[in-house]
Amino acid sequence: LPVVAVVGRPNVGKSTLVNRILGRREAVVEDQPGVTRDRVFYEAEWVGRDFWLVDTGGWEDRVQGMAHRVAEQAEVAVSLADVVLFIVDANVGITTTDEQLLRVLRRADRPVVLVANKVDDQRGELEAAALWNLGLGEPHPVSALHGRGSGDLLDAVLEAMPEEGRGGAVDRGPRRIALLGRPNVGKSSLLNRLARERRVVVDEVAGTTRDPVDERITLGGRDWTFVDTAGIRRRVLQSQGADYYASLRTRAALDRAEVAVVLLEANEPISTQDLKIIDLVLESGRALVLAFNKWDLLDEERHAQLEREIEQNLGHVAWAPRVNISAQTGRHADRLVPALDEALESWDRRIPTGRLNAFLGTLVAAHPHPLRGGKQSRILFATQARTRPPRFVIFASGFLEHGYRRFIERRLREDFEFTGSPIVIGVRIRE
Ligand code: GDP
């Protein structure tokens, strides 16, 4: 479900508005600002559309008046949100804290619905109109306390809301692959093997080189872009490559790619250089496929040895699909496409917020967080803030042990089968 975050400095009426939207008096409203509440996420509904409502008032510091803390909290909320409800107090106007929040909102690329609260009568609507100045579009005058204007406001929220949460299917053209590996591992042989089907040269960068930078290759009936094939095909450059330049080039290729195929030599020990290349891929957050080349040279003894090496050295990327190929003979070259598809599918995937929290609820109930000093950590909510690669944010109260975060990560990966994609888990702690 889409996430709507309610953002505003303390005491502008965030929780009152949340109550108004929820249409019930369940969420506690205190007169003193910053009273810690237990729940900050609510399932809400308006004319048949369901969404998550996030009340950032629940994260307010007990110590008040620190504008940067308020901005920090807003930053988190905004990063999660599909739509931001930005509330200002129409009677007070714009304060320096509001201005700080505005900066956060301008940086974030999210639709903002501007709410002028505490407009209890017609006179207040004039004051609210002055907020057009903020450049956030039409100010919506409401009285959260009395309900005035809240229906129109919710209509505006729905209008700003994406159909299925952020992301969605966008046609981005052919998927982009970085083919990586140390010299002589067989990159250019594999490229030639794959291109045998049909090769179309693309993306000539005018004036820089006569070689194509990238190549488009048809595999499994679809077009793929292999980035920086110039770096693979121009051997001169490659052999010149001091480590530093090689890694610069690899980084640049990863930058433009969506998935990396790291080629390793099946008949030679896994080297530190191989591991370094894999590290660069992990650093880039790209999807990953491991391909062991020169499989035709393998005997049984080496095969057994290789399996041991993989276990010892590649445990941290055990989630990457693996193909055993021979660029020379063409063995299993056709397995590359399904591996790429699987990795990219994981990389693009978005878990709906409802499903994610159902999963987390079950997991935490079955395996509670260990006590610390007799205290329990409470996991409040999780949402997927990003895709490509999937990034999750978990909200907990008190603390969340590193080991437990890793446990959640592992289970998340297993249960939702994120094969071939790194996943990132951020934690937000509420005192
Ligand atoms: P690059 O530096 O990674 O582009 O590696 P090349 O594609 O130039 O290959 C280096 C050497 O390995 C060449 O002599 C290739 O013929 C050989 N080679 C590449 N792939 C295979 C393979 O699958 N099996 C065997 N036996 N040799 C291969």
TrEMBL record:
EC identifiers of the protein: 2.7.4.25
Binding positions (GTP 2): 181-188, 228-232, 293-296
This protein's UniProt keywords: ATP-binding, Cytoplasm, GTP-binding, Kinase, Nucleotide-binding, Repeat, Ribosome biogenesis, Transferase
Record field: catalytic activity: dCMP + ATP = dCDP + ADP; CMP + ATP = CDP + ADP
Chief localisation class: cytoplasm
Domain EngA-type G: 2-165, 175-348
Location within or outside the cell: Cytoplasm
Binding sites annotated in the UniProt record for GTP 1: 8-15, 55-59, 117-120
Superkingdom of the organism of origin: Bacteria
Functional note: GTPase that plays an essential role in the late steps of ribosome biogenesis.
Family: Belongs to the TRAFAC class TrmE-Era-EngA-EngB-Septin-like GTPase superfamily. EngA (Der) GTPase family.
Subunit structure: Associates with the 50S ribosomal subunit.
Name used for this protein in its record: Multifunctional fusion protein
Gene label: cmk
Whole-protein residues included: 317 to 747 of 751
